Amino acid sequence: MAAAISKVPLLLRPRTRAFFALWSAVSLYLFLNHGVPALRYHLFQASSSERPQYDFTQGLFDDAVSTAGISTSTASSDGVRTVALTAPSSSRESRIAEALRDRNVTVHLVLATRAQDDVSWATDPGRLRIPGAANLRVIRYVSDAPNAPYRPPVLNKGREALMYLTYLHDFYDDLPDVAILVHAQDYAWHGEPALGTRLSKMLSRFDLREVLDNDGDLEIQKKTKRTRTRLSNRASSGQPEASGRDDALKVKDSGRHGYANLRTSWLNACPNWINTTRAPEESVKKEEPYMRDAFLANFGLGGIVFQPEGQEAPQQQQQQQQQQQVEVPEILAGTCCSQFAVSRAAVRSRPRSQYARSRDFLTTTRWSDYIAGRTWEHLWPFLFRGAARDCPVEWKALCRMYGVCFASAAEQARWMDRWREREALREPLEFWRELGRPRVAVRARSRMHELGESLREGLAAAVRRGEDVEGVGWDGVGDVYEL
User: Fold this and answer.
1) Which residues pair with 2 in a beta bridge?
2) In Å, how far are 64, 96, 205, 403 from 198, measured between CA atoms?
């Protein structure tokens, strides 16, 4: 009997068939309940609104950009794109273009890149149009290409700060009205959530008037003159000053003093981010203990010689430095992450030698590239504004720069809470996590869809409010530094 059983093929044995049937049933269950949902959403993307990468801003800004009062766009071999402006439409972008028409505003978009970076988003007129920019020149600096037309003096050093400072030094006598200095990536975590965290959308909504000199902006000049006349007439007749829109116009020309960080969030930035008095053992921010020396190396009086890490200056030199050095601010704070717009006047508020000095600081320091580059993330406001803190009110800055105008700080905070909740739901939707916990992924996807629709509804209302030139808009929020 045993000999007969041994001759039966393995797959035909009763126990083997039972095991195989059970294994097949379990596999089929797992495939249908785990594999199919994961494959469906990750390969076939059944519904666009259920995708983890679903862009809830889609369509909210595209129409405005396409009607931004731009009729033609031509590019020359040197990277200059000349934009011809048409009669204004009802869009916010067209009003900006019309307000700046007589200025013939020139803009340099300076990209800090590596050779492998894709910067097609910056060179495609269909994806990037800066409202009011009559002449746009894209200048790409490459940190790791020795033959690139624009490159830092030392390759692979100083991160974006060295490329920015090299540009500011080399173009000092040939600056545009506004220079916008940014990273290579269109999509980045530090982009504005209200604009899909995409740099191209941010720049296509950016209001150049935030950094242009007010004296040159004809519309601002006329409005401010009319407002001051009304206020003067009220004062002479004994009438009290009006509040609301007139108050907004009164403070509107206080402006940004020629410099604006493209990010508005105070997260990991404001109002008290860097303390220059802290020792290494007291700080969790790696660059913080170096900020005092970095500040003195770049801005100390008398041309203080920077001492590389681990080296001590002779006692006599230390005494001389103490007599010459400027007062180092205890607190340095400003929105991250080294992407900003700056006017010609703000750049030239410092001599060209300042940019050479700061450039040389980055090329000669023995600090790690991470530390040296990070220190400059906190020094741009002082360089251009002489301010240790640059913390514009978030919802006001978002409204004035991008025309996304929430009704209040509380409304924006609620919108951001929903956005953060939606971002946190991305993790359960990763393919391998969804294979293991499909029901969690289904609930996360459903909640993500609900949040996306809610975010879109709130954002649409904020965009409409920003389009209302007689309501909030650019004028109505007033000074961005006043709470």
Assistant:
1) none
2) 16, 21, 11, 15
Cα angle 174-179-184, degrees, rounded to a multiple of 5: 120
* Nearest residue to 121 (alpha-carbon basis) of 134, 138, 105: 138
Q: Which residue has the higher pLDDT, 119 or 37?
A: 119
Q: At what angle do helices 159-170 and 352-364 cross, to 10 degrees?
A: 150
User: What are 296-312's pLDDT values in tens digits?
Assistant: 999 987 543 334 344 44
- Contacts of residue 444, Cβ cutoff 8 Å, sequence gap at least 6: 425, 428, 429
Q: Is the preceding peptide bond at 271 cis, omega within 30 degrees of 0?
A: yes
350 phi and psi angles, rounded to 5 deg = -110, 145
What DSSP line would sit under 82-140, residue for residue? Answer: EEEE-S--SSHHHHHHHHTGGGT-EEEEEEEE-TT---HHHH-TTT---TT-SEEEEEE
Paired tokens of 378: 């906190």
Q: Which residues of 174-210 are buried (b: 16+ CB within 10 A; e: fewer)?
A: ebbbbbbbbbbbbeeebbbbbbbbbbbbbbbbbbbbb
Q: What are the backbone dihedrals phi and psi of residue 340, each rounded to the nearest 5 degrees, phi first?
A: -155, 165
Q: How many CB atoms lie within 10 A of CB 255?
A: 22
User: Is the backbone peptide bond immediately before 337 cis, with ω within 30 degrees of 0?
Assistant: yes
3-state secondary structure (DSSP) of residue 152: coil
Q: Give me the sheet containing 389-390, strands edge to edge.
A: 274-275, 331-334, 389-390
> CB neighbours (10 Å) of residue 78?
8
Enclosing H/E stretch for 68: none
Question: pLDDT tens, 349-407?
Answer: 999 999 999 999 999 999 999 999 999 999 999 999 999 999 999 999 999 999 999 99
At 347 the pLDDT is 96
260 beta partners: 341
Report residue 437's pLDDT band, with 50, 70 and 90 as the boundaries. low
pLDDT in tens, 61-115: 654 433 333 334 444 544 444 444 433 344 788 888 888 988 899 999 999 999 9
Distance CA 169, CA 139 (A): 14
